[in-house]
């Protein structure tokens, strides 16, 4: 689980970055982009060319958090995306709900900074709160609501790491506009059809691991969120603190349920059997298997989109 150490994060991250650099061939020592693959999106690693490619289990890297959740492998994969752009992929990430601190969840971002990364792409599976979103849709995140952060469960709490950034980093334009323009261009090039459209929206971070109640979904929607999920935001905050430009993409794996739960004496329940009542309550209920399955089937679109986006950003002529 969480690696405990009292060393400042700069020292820990420096040690992890040196560990990786010593084991990487010259061409992969200075990756241009880091990509965090969310639930079911690890297939992106297969788009990296075979040679050169170097993989590290998180467990082997100093201070890296160890994962505990089913469906999330834990490895760092270095390789050339499109055969050209040196990249590092995180296949599986640590979540706060596993018991990791927000400091540990965001530790890899600081290691990336010390490897020289200046752009990051984060992906995740999320619940759709915006009624226009369908399961399988892709949403480019353009803002977030970090309720836990506002309440003080925040990765930058404590003495500021001056080596990484300012005490009070602004987040009003956290999701890079220029990079988002590249994603729209990439979408039009490799996916755009009349039927599917690339959404943009606001992501609300929740601690998990339980999925939200109906009342919580209504509250988050009223607060202005389009998506809800259990990751990404802490990493975004730490990336922005150290000046990394970020893109974040959600795959909608389930739609939130808003309809209030019926009263026990509601008219519509009259004469219904327990089986019928159960079936009614199953409608729209989120479950982890469904989230993984939706991730698997829509993942190829997301992969194509990311590969083309990276090409647009780093090799504009391709
Ligand atoms: N809520 C929170 N996290 C999620 C969801 C959800 O509905 N779907 C996928 N991750």
The rounded distance between the terminal residues' Cα atoms is 42 Å
The CATH H-level superfamily is: Nucleoside phosphorylase domain
Low-confidence stretches: none
Name the structural class.
alpha/beta
Radius of gyration: 20 Å
Descriptive report:
With 318 residues, the protein is of the alpha/beta class. The protein is built from eight helices and nine strands. It has helices spanning 9-22, 102-114, 147-150, 177-190, 214-223, 233-241, 274-282, 288-314, and strands at residues 33-37, 54-57, 75-81, 85-91, 119-128, 138-146, 199-205, 227-229, 245-255. A five-stranded mixed barrel has the order 5-8-7-6-9, surrounded by four helices. Helix 1 (9-22) packs across helix 2 (102-114). It starts with 8 loop residues before the first helix and ends with a helix. Bound molecules: hypoxanthine. Hypoxanthine is lined by residues 125-127, 206, 211-212, 228-230, 253-254, 256, 286, 291.
Task: Describe what is shown at a glance.
The protein is α/β, with parallel strands linked by helices.
Keywords summarizing the entry:
single chain; 318 residues; alpha/beta; Rossmann fold; five-stranded mixed barrel; 8 helices; 9 strands; 31% helix; binds hypoxanthine; Nucleoside_phosphorylase_d; glycosyltransferase
SSE order and pairing:
Layout: H1 9-22, E1 33-37, E2 54-57, E3 75-81, E4 85-91, H2 102-114, E5 119-128, E6 138-146, H3 147-150, H4 177-190, E7 199-205, H5 214-223, E8 227-229, H6 233-241, E9 245-255, H7 274-282, H8 288-314
Parallel strand pairs: 1-4, 1-5, 5-9, 6-7, 7-8
Antiparallel strand pairs: 2-3, 3-4, 5-8, 6-9
Helix pairs in contact: 1-2, 2-6, 4-8
The structure holds hypoxanthine.
Subunit structure: Homotrimer.
Function: The purine nucleoside phosphorylases catalyze the phosphorolytic breakdown of the N-glycosidic bond in the beta-(deoxy)ribonucleoside molecules, with the formation of the corresponding free purine bases and pentose-1-phosphate. Cleaves guanosine and inosine.
Binding site for phosphate: 39, 72, 93-95, 125, 231
